[in-house]
Amino acid sequence: MFAYLEVQKHDPRFEWIEISSLAENDEAPFSVRLVVGEAHEMVANFIQRFMARREGSFPVPEAQRNTIEELFEEACMARVLLKSGGDSPDLIDLFPTSVLYFKYPEKTSFRKSRAARIKMFLDEGYSLLQAHEFEAAMKRLDWVHHLDVSNVMAYELKLVCLRSWKKMAECIPVFENWIEAHPDDLAPRFGIGEMWLYLEQYVRARERFEEILQIHENDCMALIGLAQAKLKLGENPIDELRKAWLKDSEYTVNMVEHHFDFRGRGSSDLRPLSLEEIAKTYQIPLKRILERACNGVFPMAPPDESGLLRFSKNDMDRYYEVLKLLGLEIDKNKFGPVVNNTQDLQPGLFDE
Question: 113-183 has which CATH code?
Fold first, then answer.
């Protein structure tokens, strides 16, 4: 007996279809490409070729043969309609997302409506994602978009799937398709800007955030994204961060303190210094220096063999300037000369 049959691929004119199928107790499915013709002959050809590719044959119940023949009749009908110039969007759209599950009939999409298939494929995609079966999850979500290109849930699940799969670059076309389907939705525009930042494509990231600001002037998230891109391009981000702070000071401070990366791109003036020397130079309590270093926002590279940190003075000066702007640090000149004890250089905002 067959466990399931699934449409794998099809010719745009339905000259041929490719079927992936699995027999009960088999470990891996077989794929068979069939010329679309008379449905009864297609069934016989399919079973003959399937049996030839495995060790031993098995009986195929008459009920399974009839159901498979009904599926192939759909392909024949789609081919005829396309050749005659007829129009049957449901038949042509639904056939490529057809699955016959003989063991679990509730998972069968054949004969189900468009809406029922979309819901079923979303549920399956989510379950496969949780099971870390990313390739199978993406196929089901692709089927959702084949039936409903505007489905936002499928876009979101695809992005979660690709990020979990560590395929970051492949998120870009998903975001672009989302934007095309929903040009007024800001979420994919923010997402693609952040992804370009992650991929170190800072010019493209800057363009995306500037696009958002043309639509929504002074949007806090876009201003912070633009600031990050500009900093990586060697430009000054102060104006954008100041505007963001005026719009939402709490969010801006949180981003700078815990998420912002102040390390410049290709800095040439890297100098080796210890955390204690950095704290002394800028009169920042050593504890806060350590916390920021752990957050990854400190403008530095990992320690070298000497235990020293290599950083750019330009990056550090800009970082300190932003900290003062946001009220996270106070200008050292207001406290007089530098003292030796780095633990007491400057009181924390919440220190007793």
Answer: 1.25.40
